[in-house]
Design goal:
Elements lengths: L14 H22 L6 H26 L3 H23 L6 H33 L1 H8 L10 H33 L6 H26 L3
Helix pairs in contact: 1-2, 1-4, 1-6, 2-3, 2-7, 6-7
Length: about 220
């Protein structure tokens, strides 16, 4: 039996995030399989894979939040939820020799419910923000045509995400720098307030994207 069935209700229409969510769902289903078959020797490796990929996914999401101009209070709340989830997984992994089959089923239920709620509520808020406020992301995502043949879903997610997201982040910086140049060197006259606001907004965007690049680099 598959404990977590992926469906269209979980799709955020952001390819990089949707693909990573599918990998997490597959890893949770892997855990269900080893529990059902009582393959206790595999618990450690399955938990390890789940924790490693979850960390990678969370870093990707957090980098996207920073780069897209997601409200900082929401970014911090999102990061807090991620941290709590990782701590839960770490605590299970560190005490796995004392975990019973009943405990594992409770953990499995927790993982499924947490990810379902996180995707449908928290992550959807980020997706709405990106789709509504970020034309650069939409144009960038349209250009992504990964060569998927011959690779597993997990391999695909790992291989394309870092390089393609870095390209997106640098595109944001390029557009922000163009905004500054337009204000400084364009023949069109700007009011002092508009001049200052445009530059400050662009510089803030560049600063946030550089933070996003630094966060994404943690995944490597």
């Amino acid at each position: 039996m598959t404990v977590f069935v992926w469906s269209s209700q979980f799709e955020l229409k952001i390819k990089v995030i949707d693909e990573q969510h599918k990998v997490l769902v597959a890893l949770i289903n892997d855990l269900e399989k080893v529990i059902a078959k009582k393959k206790t020797a595999q618990y450690s490796s399955v938990f390890s894979n789940l924790i490693k990929y979850t960390r990678y996914h969370f870093i990707t999401e957090e980098a996207l939040m920073l780069a897209s101009g997601f409200p900082l209070s929401d970014v911090n709340a999102h990061i807090k939820q991620h941290k709590q989830f990782i701590e839960e997984l770490d605590s299970v992994c560190s005490d796995e020799s004392y975990v019973s089959e009943g405990d594992l089923n409770v953990i499995l239920s927790f993982l499924t419910n947490w990810l379902t709620n996180h995707i449908c509520k928290v992550d959807r808020k980020l997706a709405t923000h990106i789709h509504d406020e970020n034309e650069i992301f939409s144009r960038w995502e349209e250009k992504q045509h990964a060569k998927e043949s011959g690779r597993t879903q997990h391999q695909l997610a790992i291989e394309i995400d870092y390089k393609s997201l870095m390209g997106y982040f640098h595109e944001i910086i390029r557009h922000a720098e163009e905004d500054i140049k337009n204000v400084l060197f364009c023949e069109q006259q700007f009011s002092p307030d508009t001049h200052q606001q445009t530059i400050e907004k662009a510089l803030k965007k560049i600063s946030m994207v550089r933070k996003a690049i630094g966060r994404l680099s943690l995944s490597q």
